[in-house]
Amino acid sequence: MTLLKSYYHLCKPNVVYMMLICAFVGMLLAEQYVSSYLYLFVSLLGIALCAASAAAINQVIDRKTDASMTRTDQRPIPQGELSPMHASVFALIIGILGSMILYFFVNTLTMVLTITSLIGYAFIYTVYLKRATPQNIVIGGLAGAAPPLLGWSSITNTIDPYALLLVLIIFVWTPPHFWALAIYRKDEYAKESIPMLPVTHGVEFTKLQIVLYTIILFIVSILPYVVLMSGIIYLVSALILSSIFMYYAVKLFVSKDNEIAMKTFQFSIYYIFLIFLALLVDHFIIVS
User: Fold this and answer.
1) CB contact at 8 A, 77 and 87
2) pLDDT score recorded for residue 288
3) DSSP letter, residue 125
4) Are residues 50 and 80 in the same domain?
5) What is the pLDDT of residue 286?
6) Cβ–Cβ under 8 Å, residues 112 and 29
7) Closest CA to 75 of 64, 88, 90
8) Labelling 110: which of 19, 88, 143, 260 has CA 20 to 30 A away?
C-alpha cells in the first residue's frame, strides 16, 4: 500500500486533477449535450495517464533540486521511497498506455497534442527553460495551458478557436499564479540557482509583473462573452473573480508581507477552477 501511495504521489495528483478539470470543461463545452459518458471517461483516462507520466518525469529530472527545497523534499524520490530507475520505467509505461488509449479509442489529433504537451512540460520546460530564463513560466506555461484544447479536440477532432481561447486564459493566468508562489519561495529558488523572476529581477519587479498580467487576465477573461461563446452568467462571474484577483495582486504589490504572496497564490487556484465552472454553468443553462 505504501508503494502504491508513493507511485500515486509521483504523479502529482493535485496538478493532474486540475488539468483534468480543465480538459473536462473543454469536452463539455465542445458539444451541446453529453453524447457518451464512457467516451468522456476514456478520453480523460488517456489524458490523465500522459499528464501523470509528465509529472513523474519532471520529478525524476528534478530529484536533486526537490530534495533541497522545503516545498518538494517530501516527494517519493527525495524520500527514498522510489528509485529514479523505477520512477522512469513507471513514467514510460503509463505514458505509452495513455497515448495508446488516445490513439485507439479517441483520435490521433488528441494523442499528438497530448504528447506534445507532455514533451513540452517534462523535457523542454524541466530540462531547459526552468534554468535558462526568468521567463521560464511564461514560455513553459503553454504546455500547462493545453488541457482545454485536449478535451475539446477529443470531442471534435479539431483545433477550435474557442478552445484556443480557453488555452489563452490559462496561459495568461499561469505567470501571476506561479510568480506569487515564487516570491514566497524566493530564497529556495535562489539557493538552487533557478532563475525565477524574483531571484533575477527582484521581488518588487515581480510584483509589478503580477499586477500587469492580472490586468491582461482581466481583459482576456471577458473575451468568451465578447465573442459570444458564453453569456451573462459567465460575464458576471468573470468580472467578480477577476476583480478579486486584481485586489490580491494590488495588495501584494503594496505590501511588504510575503504571506500575501501565498494568499494570492492560493486564490489563483480557486480563480481558475471557478471561472471554468462559470463557463460550464453558463453553457448548460443557455443550452437547456
Assistant:
1) yes
2) 44
3) I
4) yes
5) 62
6) no
7) 64
8) 88
